[in-house]
Amino acid sequence: MARVCQITGKVPMTGNRVSHSNIKTKRRFLPNLQTKRFFLAEEDKWITMKVSTEGIRTINKKGLFNVVKELRAKGQHI
Questions:
Q1: What CATH number is attached to the domain comprising 28?
Q2: Is residue 57 part of a domain?
């Protein structure tokens, strides 16, 4: 499964690793993803999502049901 946040859509980005002698080589910056279970009270079931820490903050702010409703409107299977 890809390293993509289901809520924010964050993906790995590329950049340079810079040594002390200023030699640049390619590297990847990975998003801080967590696999987390949430209880969706309206449907009386647990859902497992792969979300970034920013996505967890979004769920805390908007509420789980509203976030899931937005994702389903976009066509994502939750």
A1: 2.30.170.40
A2: yes
